[in-house]
Amino acid sequence: MSVDTIASATWIRPHEEDAPAAGLRPAYELSRDFELAMVPESATMAVTAHGLVEVFLNGVRVGDDELVPGFTSYRKRLQVFSYDIAALLRPGSNRVEALLSDGWFRGRHGFERRPDGFGDETALLLAIEAGNVRVATDAAWQSRASAITRADLMDGQATDFRLVEGDRPWSPVSVAAGGLYDDRDRLVEASDVRVRRIETLAPTAATRPRPGTVVIDVGRDINGWLRIADLGPRNTHLRLTHGEVLDADGLVSMENLRAFVFATGERLPAGQVDDVVSAGREGEVFEPRHTTHGFRYVQIDGVPGGWDAEAVRAVVVHSDLRPAGEFACSDERLDALHDLAVWSLRGNACDIPTDCPQRERSGFTGDWQVFVDTAAMLYDVEAFSAKWLDDLAADQWPDGRVPTVIPNPAGDGPSGVVFEDLSAGSAGWGDAAVLVPWELWRHYGDLEALRRRLPSMRRWVEYAAGAAAGGRHPERSSSRPQAAPHEPYLWDTGFHFGEWLEPGVPPRPDPTADHSIVATAFLHRSAALLAASATVVGDGEVATWAQGIAAGALAAWRAEFVTTPGRLAIESQANYTRGLAFELFASEDRPLAAERLAELIAEAGGHLGTGFLSTGQLLPALADNGQVETAYATLLSTGIPSWLGMLDRGATTAWEWWDAVGDDGAVRGSLNHYSKAAVVSFLYTHVAGIRLDANPDAASAAFRRVRIAPVPGGGLAWARAAIDTPRGPLRSEWRVDDGTFTLEVEIPDSTMATVALPDGARRTVAEGRHAFTASLLNPAARSEEAT
Description:
This is alpha-L-rhamnosidase. Keywords: Hydrolase. This protein is of the alpha+beta class. The chain folds into five domains: about 1-190, Sandwich (Jelly Rolls), CATH 2.60.120.260; about 200-320, Jelly Rolls (Sandwich); about 380-560, Alpha/alpha barrel (Glycosyltransferase), CATH 1.50.10; about 570-635; about 705-785, Maltose phosphorylase, domain 3, CATH 2.60.420.10. Helices cover about 25% and strands about 25% of the residues. Strands 11, 12, 16, 17, 18, 19, 22, 23 and 24 form a nine-stranded mixed sheet that branches. The protein has a six-stranded antiparallel sheet with strand order 5-4-7-2-10-13. Strands 26-32-33-34-37-38 form a six-stranded antiparallel sheet. Strand 11 and strand 12 form a beta hairpin.
């Protein structure tokens, strides 16, 4: 095991007399020579770092992983990567070199782009076992600044190839000890899901808006970097500015990606700028592997005459997830929407599930909470999510609160930054502690994984329930001095983001706002799913306790917010959607609530009005409660706000704001946030009809039991989807011809499927291929199975 291999190595730091300012720090080379009498049949290397590290043996890069050792809660979990290196060794003299930069450990991070989140030193820990020869980091290693003159994940990378020349002096490394260095218990085996260079894209266009400047369009928003093989003659200085949009002059604009300091309002630079200076040697290639960027366009300044844009390629970089889902239908716009969701996930699955690949690059809990179910239909995200949940548990506060971003540079307690600390524990964000493990259980069925998450899940519900019982909102206390019996379960205190970014509703990051209709709904949901999880793993005591919390929160939500059957005191599409999705309305009232939701959509001109938390739940809430036509009409609506409206305005990934590109072409916010792309789960569950049990036990989780129930509509003539499940491929394909509905399904081994046809017929089938027909013209007609 890699942790065992590295156990006796010593932490070392590069020689760094005066560390430059954040964003301007170089990458350092650390090296050592060693002798081998002969090359053994097997040899391994284990490595980790405070920072990002690449290792080279005899001039050859070890492995193809990027951004090693990945992003984790470094104070409690630091990954160790292991490699088979026998093929890179040679008899006699060998040389091991490591290239070490700031990375997430001490580089800039988050909305306010603060540096030194985990420490103000970079360090390396490495060990090689080659037969009876052992080489490990110790005081004998040497270091020097590299040709990478600055490297920061947010600011970018600068490389001066002229520095490769000559005999640059080496200095002894420093041995590092004390604090984190001495804590070997935090060393863990690296996740099987690694960040890699996944794909290379040729530019779709290259323009020259002014002398000396070329603007590259790679055709879509991606996460990664440019690789440039033509760096020009010696001393050519190319500057690469990465962004998502162009200004009126055809240059890259960064204005939509600039954040600000919450306390002062000071606007911050957007970063994402690389520099490279050519030494004029044949074969020089610039590929900035110590940073990443979220971009579609790259402005390259300093281009000499005769420069060849054909030498440029975009490298797509993200976690190497196994594709799982496929979808297609007769409406190409929905195919494009599915593609948008896939690329939104690809752009934000860079070792952790990020909110965006350019401005923050943080593991916002709310983002993965709303998208993980959809993500699991598109890719295998089990191990990817498990790694992130380990960090969530590590950074959960002692009182059960969950920070807004995971991994959290402040660790498992306050950071001292007012807004950061205030927002920890927001409903819908902190609920990721429960909702993400539950969705993984539904999709992958790992009982031990669910059992392992239960303590973290319980701590979150304890916190939320305690917050609900521990106070009253001042306005409620003023208008109703005597607390109502249901109020101990009404969560109306503390900071909450609320629905967040509803169309036409300015965001209010205000701790005095009353978001109890949202928070109480999530308290019920998390408590109910904690109870279900505890039941699955056989913890009756936790199940009973959580059921009591869920029942109390349900009663409080109904007492406080339901005025008449199917009507809410605080009306919004989001509140009705959540009430239906979380089964907060009484069963007999759900059709009325869905009818009112459809009316609100009609009042909005046929457009959706949901924000961050409930957008992915909107269409199922309508379709499952008698409003299929409205669901399809909303899915296929155009203009702003709508999904197709984003596509019509050039989106290749989902936007943060529904109106991110205004009628005048002005752009605001990130153009690559995946939360609104959660709608594509509807394409699988309702259009194609592949549905998991909502509350599976061990006998039905992980596609052991499924329901195939397509809901044709929207003028679609055909649709098909496939998911590569833990049991094998599951497929559903249907078409409509002259009023006849034909469905073909493929059921994997060890799966039982209930097939529900549009005419009301039901069939239960096991593994294999099956075909069905039904009349859409005569609902009374019964289907016949054709085998």
